[in-house]
Amino acid sequence: LLPLEIQSAEGRVVDFNHQRSQSAAYIYEPGQEEILDEIVPRFTALQVYQAILESLASEHAARMVAMKNATDNASELADALTLQYNKARQQNITNEMLDIAGGAEALVQSEKIG
Known about the structure:
mainly alpha, two-stranded antiparallel sheet, 2 strands, rod-shaped
């Protein structure tokens, strides 16, 4: 954990140990060990909490993608079934028209014969 290095906004790496030697020496109350005894468990707990939150966010994202895919598939299936229904309906209409035309033709033929 220590010494810490961060990258400043200008892109330089700032070394806190180097800055400490240039600045005044501070006395910490409580001591470094006591501070670490407090910080390390909190840091660990926060890391675990962050991992749990990221896992939940990932699960929600996966569910959203799955639901979108299911919706898209259902829409495609509905379109395909509508097309199939329309084709069957059109075939029935065509068959009925052929039956009517055939019946009319039979009447015309029977009148010619009779």
